[in-house]
Q: What sequence folds into this?
């Protein structure tokens, strides 16, 4: 949604002169973005109390809270420019804008109160909605329950081109989607059997500006290492990512950018090898190595000779442990192993375990996301419903026609996409400062239909009267199908790598 709050009818006295003597009356106009968050705050001054006596309302500066920049206009004078650019000035502009927004919402609810809210309920709701609008710690869209209103006694500046999300929404026409969300991934179907003309991308917010970064997620057909005839592709059995190319089987889903922190880990564990284990291990290694280096060639007689040699090697290892005054300790060690007691320790010694931390293997990464979906119109309510269904349907196993076996659920590709800011990178490219993700399985998907603690729905035929929940809290956890290897990260590339 977009809209504006504030206007000259909500001016308040301020002093931004260094000596505190110049009192002026200012007001703000707050512009919202497609997330329902504050995008910019225009700062105006009225004639009343103006230190320089100009006879009309003038726009003296604009504050962009997301990037922390204040831009003065040609009508701003030195004291105002210095104040607006200071941290305390920015904070006061935001406070004035939030108060004006709260007052506008409260006035609108008071004048249009179909739910017969009490005065206290109206005040509480207006405070909560204004806080949501000015909460910049989340990119999830908010949905004020009131209509945005300009309480202006003068002319309201027009919204510049591009501020309306319809002017600059994400262009999804070039993405290779495959199926409409209501028809995708039917039981027993494969990518080759689905019609290709029923594709439709899904996105939230519905009017998402292309200037914002976003997450792109789409399902893919699982590609096994072994085929149904018992064969396998030796080139990809140990390289899972290479199995997946153009295997999309459903709608592209575009969601607000909430990157999950990545945790890369490898398996390291303690390992022990005492002197006795070392000797017998060396003997076993030598005997097995002899078997693989030509100890058996033909006839079977050599196998008997190898077995005798193996036994001799073990006896040789035992003899190597003798001497040096340690025979009694070795006897105590083996006696303890036989009866399950620490006889060696009761003899006053402990065997040196040669403790060392050793590499045991890679680990798989997991990515968790939490999204708050709040429909603001009928189409967006349906879009949210389709998004939830796509994930639930895609992660569920499919029964074969005879119901004897289950096909593996679909896997998912996740990409952090950089918005179009007029740079060479443009829209639709992997974000160069966020990690890439290999194909994933959707391990869990949770929907909370009462995120605010109570059951609330819209009534009627439209979004505000159509039965949709007022909000949905969705959490999901993905797990990568294969680990990250050293060769996966290319230091020469201009990206974050995996």
A:
């Amino acid at each position: 949604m977009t809209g504006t709050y504030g206007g000259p009818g909500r001016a308040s006295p301020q002093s931004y002169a260094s000596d505190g003597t110049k009192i002026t009356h200012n007001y703000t106009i707050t512009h919202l973005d497609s997330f329902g968050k504050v995008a910019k705050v225009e700062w105006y001054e009225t004639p009343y109390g103006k230190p320089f006596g100009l006879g009309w309302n003038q726009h003296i500066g604009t504050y962009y809270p997301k990037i922390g920049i204040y831009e003065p206009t040609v009508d701003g004078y030195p004291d105002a420019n210095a104040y607006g650019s200071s941290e305390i000035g920015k904070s006061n502009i935001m406070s004035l804008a939030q108060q004006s927004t709260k007052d506008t919402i409260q006035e609108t609810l008071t004048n249009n109160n179909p739910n017969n809210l009490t005065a206290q309920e109206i005040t509480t709701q207006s405070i909560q909605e204004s806080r949501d609008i000015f909460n910049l710690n989340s990119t999830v869209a908010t949905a004020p329950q009131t209509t945005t209103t300009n309480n202006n006694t003068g002319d309201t500046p027009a919204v510049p081109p591009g501020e309306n999300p319809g002017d600059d929404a994400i262009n999804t026409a070039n993405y290779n989607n495959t199926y409409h969300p209501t028809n995708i991934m039917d039981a027993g179907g494969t990518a080759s059997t689905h019609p290709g003309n029923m594709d439709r991308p899904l996105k939230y917010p519905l009017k998402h500006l292309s200037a914002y970064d976003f997450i792109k997620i789409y399902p893919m057909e699982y590609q096994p290492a072994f085929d149904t005839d018992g064969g396998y592709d030796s080139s990809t059995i140990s390289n899972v990512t290479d199995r997946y190319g153009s295997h999309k089987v459903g709608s592209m889903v575009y969601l607000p950018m909430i990157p999950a922190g990545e945790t890369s880990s490898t398996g390291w564990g303690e390992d022990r090898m005492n002197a006795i284990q070392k000797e017998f291990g060396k003997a076993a290694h030598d005997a097995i190595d002899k078997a693989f280096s030509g100890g058996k060639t033909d006839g079977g007689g050599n196998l008997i000779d190898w077995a005798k040699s193996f036994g001799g090697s073990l006896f040789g290892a035992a003899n190597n442990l003798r001497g040096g005054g340690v025979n009694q300790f070795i006897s105590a060690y083996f006696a303890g192993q036989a009866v399950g007691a620490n006889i060696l320790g009761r003899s006053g010694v402990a065997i040196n375990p040669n403790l060392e931390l050793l590499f045991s293997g890679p680990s798989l990464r997991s990515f968790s996301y939490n999204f708050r979906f709040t429909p603001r119109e009928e189409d967006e309510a349906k879009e949210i419903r389709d998004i939830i269904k796509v994930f639930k349907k895609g992660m569920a196993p499919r029964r074969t026609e005879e119901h004897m076996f289950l096909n593996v659920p679909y896997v998912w590709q996740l990409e952090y996409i950089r918005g179009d800011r007029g740079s060479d990178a443009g829209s639709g490219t992997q974000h160069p400062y966020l990690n890439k993700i290999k194909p994933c399985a959707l391990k869990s998907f949770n929907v909370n239909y009462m995120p605010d603690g109570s059951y609330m729905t819209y009534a009627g035929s439209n979004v505000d009267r159509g039965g949709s929940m007022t909000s949905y809290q969705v959490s999901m956890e993905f797990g990568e199908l294969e680990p990250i290897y050293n060769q996966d990260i290319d230091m020469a590339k201009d990206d974050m790598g995996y």
Q: What stands out?
A: Residues 168-266+364-488 form one domain. The longest strand covers residues 23-32. The helical segments are 78-85, 87-111, 119-133, 275-295, 301-320, 327-339, 343-346, 378-395. The longest helix spans residues 87-111.
